[in-house]
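hi! just following up on the protien thing from before. the input was this:
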Amino acid sequence: MKPTAILYLALVVCVSTAASETVEQTAPLKPGNRVEIHNHSGSIEIEGWNRDRVEVSAELSSDASELKFVASDNKVLIKVVNRGRKRYGGTDLQIMVPKETHIEVTGVSSDIDVEAVSGRQRLSSVSGDINTYAFDDEVFANTVSGDIEIEGSGEETVIDVTTVSGEASVEDVSGEVSVSTTSGDLEVSGNEIQRLNLSAVSGDIDMEGSLHEKAKVDVETVNGDVQLDISGNIEAEFDLESFNGSISSIDGHKAKRHSKYGPGRYLEYTRGDGKARIRVNTLNGDIDIY
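and the predicted 3d structure came back as:
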């Protein structure tokens, strides 16, 4: 057997528990490698630090049969395994990882909180809130029932956020941003945003900040108002349309009706050289461009 295989087997830890208890495990991990985390019910807290190892402290519920902690040279798996009952108590995980770690987190009924992790993040929960910080690597966050909050560092990155029933807030970001919700409000702020895709079925959409000179912006909502507060004199093509709502622009252009007596208004105009493109469409809601 190869030495690396021996190390791998030596760090496979399964901790059984019959009652609620605290379990702690640790393993070496170099920055830039991956940590995968699974928890059915309970909180998941992850924090980056300047040490080349992973540490986990788990408050195991009585429904958890084991904590799987599997470590190899480039990956650590942390998984709470339940006893198969229909009702579960919550297991709380507190995890420290090297700051540059790439993390993949999956929860069912779990809140996810991440701090000071600059590697790629893939965060998913069925019923729970997600809170994290974005640096210069990709962040993907989705939840079915819960709110999502992402605070950026102003660095260029890629943000992709989806929530079915919940609000989403993305602050101080740059680069490419995509945020969608079925039922909930969306708020985005940033600087030099290059691509912005925002969509809501039922909810208001607010964006504040500056755009890249060749930015592409697409905003859609079925029932909700759209407000874009764009700083700087962006030169862009504007294509704005509301089936049942008003349209106003700081440039003073007046919206036109699709027909003399029917519903629906649109406003199309170009500011400057029109290098950027801004398209907004809502079925029932007002559009305001500042």
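The CA atoms of residues 244 and 261 lie 13 Å apart.
The longest helix spans residues 3-10.
cheers
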